[in-house]
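seq as requested:
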Amino acid sequence: MRRSALQSATAFVALLAASACTLDFDQFEPELFPASSGSGSGGAGGDGGGQVTTASTASTASSGGSGAEHCLNGDDDDGDGAIDCADDDCGGFACVAVPEDWRGPGILYQGPAAADVACPEGLPTRVDVGGRDVLDTPATCSPCACGAPTVACETPAVTVYGGDACDGASLTLPVESENCIDLGDGFQPGSYSAGAPDVDSATCPASGGEATLPPPRFGTEGVVCAPGPDTGGCAAAEACAPREIDAPFEQGVCIWREGERRCPDEFGERHVFASSVIDDRDCTRCTCDASGVACAATLTLFERSRCRTPVETVSFNGACAGDPPPAASVSLEVTGAGSCQPRGGAPRGEIEEGEDRITVCCAR
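struct tokens:
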């Protein structure tokens, strides 16, 4: 029997409808994570063991709803009844179980100048975990300087001779500075000699040598970036975390804990960082070398006793002064002069890793 045109058309429409409900599931990649055991349904999840591969962004455009689902903020942004890891739109994220006494999850950067590395969007919690290979940068020391010297000179002596060439009868006079010595009425020197007095002591006040310490730095610095506390879509003791991670961060989701620890089996990639330093950098003490200080003296001869009416003043230089004018008294002036040379003010000490450690364990 021949079918009517209406029967043929009806059969053709039914065939098209049946074909439209048939999908080729082989064209999609299989799920990298089993479904989350947390709240919500259909999201990328974890098996509680923290076995996580890698990630891209902290927000994913929604395929429906009123907006984009941000996968780490604990909100149902697209209004489909599922949040974060429980949302189908968050395929680049997974639930991670954090073992007891550990913190996480997060992603790890390790390398130079961690302060210049910004945490990605959606991972606002920044934890500086220390570093390795501390840089032994020395202290910077302010210059040393020396003030004016304080000098004590030994008591000089003047030898007065009866002859005009520093010969004949003589008399050695210890002369106190600025004191007057009467020579007596019956003694007329024919010559005299005196050497410069020695330095008994000399000191200069020292200043400078203050240390400026560059901040401690490590050759390799570590920082962990983690989501805030409000991530959702996972079971208790689990947290939503990215599974695709862009450079310069290490691949893998990480947990961390103070101390040098063994990693849990699920997080087998271990990184240990020093979280303190021992810093004994300083500058050596500034001192002053007084070898440039000397004593000088001048002798003044007076015509009358009690050092009245000066007639001649001569500097002490050790030479013989012949044919002096008649003198009834003498006085001596002693002074210390010169300057000190600064010493010290050099960097000393070193900086090294302390005993405190932080262990970061990652699962790829």
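Helices lie at 5-20.
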